[in-house]
Write a structure and sequence with these properties.
Helix content: 25-40%
Shape: globular
Strand content: 5-15%
Number of helices: 8
Structural class: alpha/beta
Strand order of the largest sheet: 1-3-2-4-6-5
Radius of gyration: 17 Å
Order of helices and strands: HHEEHHEHEHEEHH
CATH architecture: 3-Layer(aba) Sandwich
CATH class: Alpha Beta
Oligomer: single chain
Length: about 230
Amino acid sequence: MTIEALHREIVACRRCPRLVAWREQVAAEKRAAYAGEEYWGRPVPGFGDPAARLLVVGLAPAAHGANRTGRMFTGDRSGEWLYRALHRAGFADRPESVARDDGLRLRDVFVTAPVRCAPPANRPTAAEFAACRPWLDAEAELLPGVAVVVCLGGIAYREALGLLQRRGVAVPRPRVRFQHGVEVPTGGPLVICSYHPSQQNTFTGRLTEPMFDAVFAAARRRLGPFPGAFE
C-alpha cells in the first residue's frame, strides 16, 4: 500500500459514532469567524515527507483547526507554533501552514496523531484511541526511515511508546516519566518529549518558543544536517 492509498482509507473512516457525529456537527455549525469556509469534517491523515526520519506525534485534530482545514496542525494556534519551530529547524520551507493547498513543503519530517477525528472537549475515549491505532500502525509501516519521534504531550508519549512496542521495539521498563525535553532511548528511534503547544501551555508560559525550539534542535542534532537546501 502507498501512503496516498492509506490516507484515502483514513479519510473514509467512520469507526467511532461519537467522533463522526461531533466532527460533522462542528463542520455544519461552524465558528462565526469561518462561516464562509467549507469545513473538512472528516478524519485527518498525517502530513509530510514519506522519507522522513523525524515523526511528530500530537493528540487529535482541533475542531476548528485540522477538522476545518483537513491538514494536521493547520488553522489553529498550536499549528502556528509547530510549523514555526519546524521551519526554524530546517524541516519546513516556510513558517506557517494555513490550508491544504498552500504549497507548504516538509522535508525529513512527518506529522501525525493517534486520533484522526476532532473529539468533543479534546478528549478521546479509550475505545476511540483503540479504534484509531491501526491507522497509526499502518502509517508507521510506511515510514521505515524514522529515527526520532517527538511526542507533543504525555498522551502522545504514551501512544508513541505503544506504537514502538507493537512494532517490536524495546522500550525502557519502567517507563521513563514524561517531562519536557526528556530524551528516551529505545531499541529503535530516539523518543523526545515536549509539552504540547496548546494555548493552555503557551499562554501561561509553561511552554516558550525557545523551549520548543530546543526540542527540534535536539532532533536535528540526532539526525545530523540535511544535505542541500529546499529545491
